[in-house]
Backbone:
């Protein structure tokens, strides 16, 4: 399931992030890539512990926290420390790869299985050419380029790439989620059920059927979730 989440960050938060990024200490993005990804990766990233990364991470995590759709779609168990990257100039693309299945959180040593990938765009589409996130799955190839502050969720199992940025710069925050429900197919069923229940309730109020189907949702979640 590939899903767009509008306005994870407010426009004010995007401005704050952008001001911090203007003077941030960028480093070679290959430092955090596995052996295969390293051969196709050419971008820049921020160190985990710099001021800009720390503040933007807090903004993004707070934005996710207030977003009910994110929770419904990802059913998060653990969120890997969000990172910030930049594509421009000679460091302007990330070729086709599948992300490492397991990430280790710096400092704590905690392992996170990368069930769901998330990118929060920090540049607007008219600020750069190229730089599309291209995700291949069973439905074919999807190209994603969203307004600043918006996010996309896609399965960690997907082959994906960021196409070369040929003008301007593309700034983004990216991270992975270990979900309580490991299977993308099961997460999608739960999310569909949840969203349709929400709209049924808005249209008709609470009925015997919405009460029963809410029970079905929770019973499926109970059957599939690992907490
Ligand atoms: Ni990736």
Residues:
């Amino acid at each position: 399931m590939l899903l767009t989440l509008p306005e994870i960050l407010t426009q004010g938060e995007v401005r704050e992030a952008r001001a911090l990024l203007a003077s941030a200490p960028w480093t070679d993005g290959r430092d955090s890539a596995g052996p295969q990804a390293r051969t196709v990766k050419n971008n820049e990233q921020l160190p985990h512990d710099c001021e800009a990364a720390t503040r933007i991470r807090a903004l993004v995590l707070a934005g996710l926290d207030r977003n009910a759709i994110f929770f419904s779609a990802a059913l998060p168990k653990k969120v890997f420390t969000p990172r910030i990257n930049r594509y421009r100039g000679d460091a302007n693309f990330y070729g086709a790869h599948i992300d490492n299945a397991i990430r280790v959180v710096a400092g704590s040593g905690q392992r996170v299985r990368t069930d769901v990938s998330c990118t929060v765009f920090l540049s607007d589409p008219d600020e750069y050419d190229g730089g599309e996130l291209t995700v291949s799955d069973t439905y074919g190839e999807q190209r994603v380029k969203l307004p600043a502050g918006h996010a996309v969720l896609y399965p960690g199992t997907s082959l994906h790439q960021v196409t070369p940025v040929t003008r301007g710069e593309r700034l983004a925050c990216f991270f992975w989620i270990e979900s309580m429900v490991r299977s993308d197919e099961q997460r999608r069923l739960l999310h569909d059920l949840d969203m349709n229940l929400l709209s049924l309730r808005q249209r008709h109020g609470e009925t015997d059927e919405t009460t029963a189907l809410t029970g079905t949702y929770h019973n499926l979640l109970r059957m599939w979730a690992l907490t």
In short: Residues 3-179 form a domain with the Jelly Rolls fold (CATH 2.60.120.620). The chain has six helices and 17 strands. Residues 97, 99, 160 surround nickel (II) ion (CB under 6 Å).
